[in-house]
Amino acid sequence: MSAPSDKTLVIIPTYNELENLPLIVGRVRAAEPKVHILIVDDNSPDGTGKAADALAHDDANIFVLHREGKGGLCGAYVAGFRWGLERDYQVLCEMDADGSHAPEQLHLLLSQIDAGADLVIGSRYVPGGEVVNWPKNRWVLSKGGNIYISLALGAGLSDMTAGYRAFRRAVLEAIDLDELSNAGYIFQVDMAWRVVQAGFDVREVPITFTEREIGESKLDGSFVKDSLMEVTKWGLNHRKNQITELVTTFSGQLGHEIKKWRKKHYL
Q1: DSSP states of 85-122 as a string?
Q2: In the prediction, which pLDDT does 141 show?
Q3: What region holds the Glycosyltransferase 2-like domain (predicted)?
Q4: How far apart are CA 128 and CA 146, in angstroms?
C-alpha cells in the first residue's frame, strides 16, 4: 500500500533567486529523489524564470508556473496549491528558494504526514529546533511574535509564522484559499489558524532554519506591526465567539433545568 508522501509536490516560489534556485533544486533532488518540484516564478527580472525552464527541460520531475509580475508569496503558494490539486498530488509542501529550509529535513515533515498528520510545520521553536545566522534582535522579534500569536489565538503551536510546511490535499481542499490574508507574511498564521479551527491534525517537527547567504530577504519590517494587529483582531473575535457560545450553552442548560423543575413541581 502506497503512502501519501509517495505523491508529493514541493512548491518553491521565486523572485530574483537566480543564484539560489539551482542550489535548492539540486538539494531537493538529492534528498528526496521521488518528489516533484513546482517552481512558481513571479516574472523575476534577473532571469530566474528562464533558469527554472532550463531545469525543467532537463528533469521530468520539475515543473514551472510563470506568473505575471510580483504577486506576493501568498499568491504564489495559492497558485501552486491549485496547480498541484488539479494534478492529484496527495501531499503539497512549502519551501523557500533561498536555502533557509533544509531539503535534507523534508523527510521529518513527510514521515509525520504518513503517520496521520494533516499539516506538519517545520518549527524553529520546539525542542530541537534552531535558527542559524540570525542577529539576536531578529530572533527575539520572531520568537516573541510567535509567543504573542500563540497566546492571542490559543492554537497550541510554537511557530505559526514558519514557512516550511507539508499539507495533505484534504486540508487544502477544505480551506477557502481565496480568503487567505495577503498582508505580508501573515497568511502563514492565517492558514495555520484556519486548519486548527477546522479540527485537522496539526503537528510541529524541529528544523534548523538557516538565514540566506545569497541575495536579499524579501521581508519588510513593517509587516510585524501590521501582522500582530491583525492577529489581535482574530484573537479578540475568537474569544468573543467563545464567550457567546459559552453563554448560549449555559442559557440553554439553565432553561432546560428550569423546565424540569417547573414540571416536577407542577408549576
Answers
A1: HHTT-SEEEE--TTSSB-GGGHHHHHHHHHTT-SEEEE
A2: 85
A3: 10-174
A4: 17
Q: What is the pLDDT of residue 184?
A: 59
Evaluated on CA atoms 202, 137, 75, 84, the torsion sign reads negative
Cβ atoms within 10 A of the Cβ of 82, count? 14
From start to end of the chain, where are the E strands? 8-14, 36-41, 62-66, 91-94, 119-123, 130-132, 165-168, 202-206, 208-210
Q: What is the pLDDT of residue 113?
A: 98
C-alpha cell at 141: 522579534
**Domains annotated on the chain, with CATH:** 4-221 (3.90.550.10)
**Sign of the CA dihedral with 62 first, then 161, 77, and 18 last:** negative
Contact 42, 80 (CB under 8 A): no
Split at pLDDT 50, 70, 90, the class of 251 is very low
192, 155 contact by CB (below 8 A):
yes
Q: pTM for this structure? A: 0.84
Question: Judging by beta carbons within 10 Å of its beta carbon (0-12, 13-18, 19+), is residue 218 exposed, middle or buried?
Answer: middle
CA distances from 40 to 66, 82, 175, 212, 238 (A): 6, 12, 21, 19, 34
Is residue 185 within 8 A of residue 223, CB to CB? The reply is yes
Phi first, then psi: what are they for 64, rounded to 5°? Answer: -130, 135
Q: Mind listing the pLDDT tens digit for each residue in 189-228?
A: 989 999 999 999 999 999 999 998 776 655 444 445 566 6
Given a contact cutoff of 8 angstroms between Cβ atoms, the answer to whether 6 and 69 are in contact is: no
CB 38 within 8 A of CB 67: no
